[in-house]
Amino acid sequence: MKALTEKEQMVMSVLWEHRHCGVEDVINHLDEPKPAYNTILTFLRILEQKGFISYEAQGKKHIYYPLIEKGEYTRWTLTEMKDKLFNGSARSMVNTFIMESGLSDSDVRELIEMLNMLETAKS
């Protein structure tokens, strides 16, 4: 899998949310200022080449849909980040996130509950 650029992620977010879209549909779901038709078409072609999406031809129109789900891409991205920035250490990655993000007390309680559930599931 390859990393997505910010603009590619923007297009993928539309496809992940709306599932099947033509070029005009993608444009309509994006914030102002709306990108040009050819710009979105170029991103869709790049995403197809990268293996993230495919399409069905409906007459002259192509309807694009994701081949890779958002959760799968998110997991891959986090694993890449862990491996590249934290030398493969999940502990270092989580520690940095916790120490730098200013978690609220309720966030900390939720994390503790999640860790307890993980521990219980492994037993």
Structure at a glance:
With 123 residues, the protein is mainly alpha-helical. The chain has six helices and two strands.
Describe the protein's topology:
Layout: H1 6-18, H2 23-28, H3 37-49, E1 53-58, E2 61-66, H4 70-85, H5 90-101, H6 105-122
Antiparallel strand pairs: 1-2
Task: Please give a structural write-up.
By secondary structure, this protein is mostly helical. It has two domains: about 5-65, Winged helix-like DNA-binding domain superfamily/Winged helix DNA-binding domain (Arc Repressor Mutant, subunit A, Orthogonal Bundle), CATH 1.10.10.10; about 85-120. Helices cover about 65% and strands about 10% of the residues. The protein contains six helices and two strands; from the N terminus they run αααββααα. The chain has helices at about 5-20, 25-30, 35-50, 70-85, 90-100, 105-120; strands at about 55-60, 60-65. It has a two-stranded antiparallel ribbon. The mean pLDDT is about 95.
Search tags:
123 residues, mainly alpha, Arc Repressor Mutant, subunit A, 2 domains, two-stranded antiparallel sheet, elongated
